[in-house]
UniProtKB/TrEMBL annotation:
Name of the protein in its database record: Metal-dependent hydrolase
GTP-binding in keyword set: no
Presence of the UniProt keyword Zinc in the record: no
Alphabetized UniProt keyword annotations: Hydrolase, Membrane, Transmembrane, Transmembrane helix
Organism: Billgrantia tianxiuensis
Length: 355
């Protein structure tokens, strides 16, 4: 989630745990603790793929943050003026303010390495977009009440309760979407296909579904307010014939560990050379893909890996008009939104008649 939300979450957790005893201090310190894991954004590994795949890494590890919280609890118990606060209470305060950050990040699409240093893929079970005002607003209101009124517990506790209730709603909404999706997948023989179900930007009423099917990937939108209107499925190419070449590269393997199989591959002229480009299909929206990487250049019949991979401008035809269409589609299933209208034509394989 965004930094403001993470600071607000840490503040709300801090106020809920120690607000009665420390007042505003519990809220302010909690806000600082809630932002600490994201300090890794200032780390530059000197390589685009490394930067994207190391983010939300060791600083988001439950093991690391629990250890840090334990150390801070011991220091607070030894040196803090509030001598009546037990070591156990300090421990709960520091650990919860820290670990709730990566646990919230897990509920977004990006992927969070909460089990670092274990060699497992990043964890992600997306139920909220990386920025969701309906989640953040109750936290901010609760914190504001605490800072203005001086009661460090009541406002943060209510704000935290409402934001948790919203997450529960989002989880239930995702279950409804997956239930509505089942007959659509069965009709196309895609029941076993790898898929990603995630909310569209800034809401939990309309959900984007991406389904990987060999050389193709399918996109559909499913809304809670759709009623009996069946989802439209659009089909795109993803350049899977280039996947073996990408996976033969160390950086390609790393990117596959991070985002596979939700990757699109292409050969594009970049800086005057034929370049192998990989695009993350998860992050963003069709036509708004934010992360594309130059992995290798072609020399005669072989691919030569770039010593330092670089981000490249995504190949899209998206414009701000899509946001207006998205807003209309959230509330009205009859408001046709064809994502293929924002994607370069060479990637489009099949669209419904309505598009």
């Amino acid at each position: 989630m965004d930094t403001l939300t993470q600071a607000a979450l840490g503040a709300a957790v801090g106020g809920t745990v120690l607000g009665r005893r420390l007042g505003r201090k519990a809220v302010l310190i909690g806000a600082v603790l809630g932002t600490l894991p994201d300090l890794d954004v200032f780390l530059d590994y000197g390589d685009a793929v490394a930067n994207i795949t190391e983010h939300r890494g060791f600083t988001h590890s439950l093991f690391v943050l629990t250890g840090l919280g334990t150390l801070l609890a011991l220091l607070a118990r030894r040196f803090a003026p509030a001598r009546d606060i037990s070591l156990g209470r300090w421990w709960v305060y520091f650990v919860l303010c820290l670990v709730t950050h990566p646990l919230l990040d897990v509920l977004t699409t990006y992927g969070t390495q909460i089990w670092w240093p274990l060699d497992v893929r990043p964890s992600a079970w997306p139920v909220v977009f990386i920025i969701d005002p309906l989640y953040t607003l109750p936290l901010l209101v609760g914190i504001g009440i605490a800072l203005i009124g001086g009661n460090g517990f009541r406002g943060p506790a209510w704000g935290l309760s409402l934001s948790c209730a919203y997450l529960l709603f989002a989880m239930l909404a995702k279950g409804v979407v997956e239930h509505r999706l089942t007959p659509v997948l069965a009709e196309r023989g895609l029941e076993e296909a790898t898929r990603l179900v995630q909310p569209t930007p800034f809401n939990t009423l309309l959900w984007r579904v991406t389904i990987i099917d060999g050389d193709r990937h399918h996109e559909t939108l499913v809304g809670l307010l759709d009623g009996g209107t069946p989802p439209m499925v659009e089909t795109f190419r993803r350049g899977a014939e280039l996947e073996p070449a990408a996976l033969a590269l160390e950086k390609g393997q790393r990117l596959d560990w991070f985002a596979g199989p939700f990757l699109r591959y292409e050969v594009r002229e970049w800086e005057g050379r034929a370049t192998l480009i990989a695009t993350d299909l998860r992050l963003g929206f069709p036509g708004f893909y934010a992360f594309s990487y130059a992995l290798a250049i072609r020399e005669e019949e072989t691919w030569q890996p770039l010593q330092v991979t670089e981000m490249v401008a995504p190949d899209s035809r998206a414009d701000l008009d899509a946001l207006g269409q998205l807003g209309a589609r959230i509330l009205d299933a009859q408001a046709t939104l064809c994502t293929s209208g924002f994607v370069a034509e060479r990637w489009v394989e099949d669209t419904p008649e309505a598009c």
